Amino acid sequence: MIRKNIVIAPCGNKTPVFKDYWLSGGHERNFDLCLLFYHADIDEPDLYAEADYFFHLKNFKFKMIHELLTVIKPEWLGQYEYFYFIDDDIAIDTLSINKMFDTARALDLWIAQASLTSDSHCSWPILMHNPDCYLRFMGQVEVMAPLFNRFALEKCMPSFIVNESSWGLDSVWSKMLDYPTNKLAVIDAIQMKHLNPVGGGELYKKINEDPHESWDAVVEEFGATKNSFTEHGRFLIVDRKRNRVLRMFNKMSEKIDKTKQAYLDYGLSYRIKNRLGIKI
Q1: SS3 breakdown of the chain: % helix, strand, coil, rounded to 5?
Q2: Cβ–Cβ contacts within 10 Å for residue 239, how many?
């Protein structure tokens, strides 16, 4: 089966999260997995045998992704439709990854991310899981686990090589896409757990720059707004447990509509015409 989705993720000697979570449970997946190894030496090569693709690029996350998609496998931009760039300290299972791709495709999202579990290490509280929502449209999604469609990726990929830390890239993506209000989303129906403290991942040990200065520099270079973590709209979950008042109004509206329809279909006018034998 030819898959149209791919997970592309950095990995190192101390980050087998892909095996423990992304490929766990033996569930069928709707995505290929490509791992980009950043350490100089590979301690356990057999550990990565389940990945569909493996490249030893020894660089930073988005710089490796840029090299992969512009030099090594540029044809993937035509082969795949959705690209999920997950950090190697993100716990999310196979079925949730499948659902991420399905939801992004169904709603024609340009960039999306899963919501963060309540026990995640978190930089932006607005991205924490909201149990009342299916998803929320945002002005910006976070750099650690964005899912791109092909259109957004081709627009945003030139920014991938501007710094090592990747700080500020997510600010720039919103600018490069002209600040859409219904194409960037955090999907609350899906949750992921950020396992390490912010700045505590393996790759951060290799960074030769101040991430805060990098963030300021890239925002200035692209003329972007530094923080666009603003909600533009939401899909609410309406049931007996959540948003009950709205559910009550919806049910009342349904009853009124059914009463109106019954009158129009079977009211006085219908009965008179039926008695007179007038074809309706």
Answers
A1: 40, 20, 40
A2: 9
- Residue identified by tokens 């009965």 is 271
Asked if 120 contacts 196 with a C-beta cutoff of 8 angstroms, the reply is no
This prediction's pTM? 0.85
Short-list 239, 113, 125, CA closest to 188: 113
Which residue range forms the structural domain that includes residue 254? 244-275
pLDDT at 277: 66
Whether 8 and 61 have beta carbons less than 8 Å apart is answered as no
CB 182 within 8 A of CB 137: yes
Query: Same domain for 258 and 149?
Result: no
pLDDT in tens, 243-269: 666 656 656 766 666 666 555 555 656
Return the amino acid letter for 256: I
Task: Give the C-alpha distances (Å, rounded to integers) separating 178 from 149, 151, 275.
Answer: 16, 13, 63
Clarify whether residues 133 and 267 are in a common domain: no
- The pLDDT of residue 44 is above 70: yes
Closest to 71 measured CA to CA, from 202, 206, 203, 161:
161
> What distance in Å separates the CA atoms of residue 126 and residue 276, rounded to the nearest whole number?
65
Q: Which residue has the tokens 């469609």?
A: 149
Looking up residue 95, the CATH number of its domain turns out to be 3.90.550.10
**Residue 142 tokens, joined:** 């976070």
- Distance, in Å, from the CA atom of 186 to the CA atom of 85, rounded to the nearest integer, reads 15
